[in-house]
Amino acid sequence: MPFDGITISCLRKELSEKLVGGRITKIVQPEADELLFTIKNNAAQYRLLLSASASLPLVYLTERNKPAPMTAPGFCMLLRKHLGGGRITAVTQPSLERILRFEIEHLDEMGDLCRKYLIAELMGKHSNLIFCREDGTILDSIKHISLAVSSVREVLPGRTYFIPHTQDKLDPLTAAPSDMIAAVCAQPAALGKAVYTTLTGFSPAMAEELCHRSFLESGRPAMALNERERDMLEHQLLRLVEEIKEGHFTPQIYYNGKEPSDFSAVPFTMYEDLTVQTFTDISGLLESYYAVKNTLTRIHQKSSDLRRIVQTALERNRKKYDLQLRQLKDTEKRDKFKVWGELIHTYGYGVPEGARSMQALNYYTNEEITIPLDPTLSAQENAVHYFDKYGKLKRTFEAVTKLLQETKSQIEHLESIQTALDMALTEEDLTPIREELTEYGYIRRKSGKNGKKVKITSKPYHYLSSDGFDIYVGKNNFQNDELTFQFATGGDWWFHAKGVPGSHVIVKSEGRELPDSTFEDAGRLAAYYSKNRGSDKVEIDYVEKKHVKKPGGAKPGFVVYYTNYSLMIDSDISGLRQVD
Fold first, then answer.
1. pTM of the predicted structure, to 2 decimals
2. 501-525, pLDDT tens digit by residue?
3. What separation in angstroms does the CA of 368 have from each of 7, 266, 346, 359, 386?
């Protein structure tokens, strides 16, 4: 569900209860479009995260801290100057807009009490964090928007802040229910779409829920509702608006199996078949629902240059591989030319001059065949011609076969790097991947002092099996080699997803025999940290580490083993405990 006005109303209620009266003690800007405030209030400390990310705008309270950059950006420095030590006096939401406004009192350079506003607009790609004076003059914003970018509104220092009204929608908190229903039913659209395009703060999911509560199909024409159906819709809308006005929120996440499917600030009756998890506050819900998604979104943005390099190299090598396969296919008739040459040598003495073909018994298959001849050449010269063609195709076959192996090795190497990029969760995880691409020539190493190898600090994942055995998972090819050939001992167990790029998984046996449950736990980790993540059945190879070998000159992460066990397992690791 998107961050709609009803979710923000629930968030406003929570922030008002916990932050109003609190003092701002710390402001950092961990990302280009993100702020983290530390606020002390009622003997408690809160961290308020505000993100204006175009792909995932968020505001919520969190217990997690984020490191600040060595040099604070200008917007952060401005906020520290004006709001450091300031007191939050109100958190408001205009109508049910996707906007939160923080009213903050502070002392200016002269010691006089001043009031300023920090406005969080959570509107998808138009999201922004805007800092204003009390009179609405914009002091600065985390994103500068000029008329060249938006013809609706400039967001620049010195301009007057206003909420752009690009659509004429009714405010459910102030409009009469009958007027809202009349406006909805006047729309020449499906009922669900008519609801969310007519009423402020309603997302498509919330419009769907309103229709479900009213026992109406969201896809039927809004103009086709009869009087009884309109009354039912008005009644349910009134009940929903009362819940919002009175602050009767019940934040919930809905799970389809083990995957979160949706969330809401009020109970959704249309998800009665899904598993429900209820939260005491909306911040806890948002952090739980979006934590992984937000992390992956951020790291995906930061790894975009590496992904582009890998993808470009992969496409080039795959095209080369296809071309080489076609070249190899063209050499399949080489043995035919050899046989023709031999048969001409054997039977060609009786072929008349200028003949265009000859009949001969193929003594390899005991079949009569017709051999084409060049009438301008003698039988002996035709035989030499076919032997030459055979020799050329044989040499091509040998050369292309070698090139195919090299190209396939490059593709497998690049696919393993691509899988490592998919698993990366921090910038530290990207460092060894960048170094590997540099070592193998996909990235040019800088000259001078900056061209030295970078220090790699990323560590493997560490899990505990259900029986207490330590399990380690490599995040990239360098770590895979280190885990398998430096960290693991001969009696430890090695796991890997069969036939696909993935992590090396090591179980430290400490000389003990592993129970079946530990084999299954390690297998699930090998499945999860592979290209087959998300599959219900993944084939896993496992063997004692002493049987795993690395061929001379092999690329990082590439190993061979000639005897192994196998198991089929799912890739669900929710029951495993990760050790920090």
1. 0.64
2. 999 999 999 889 999 999 999 999 9
3. 83, 84, 14, 7, 19
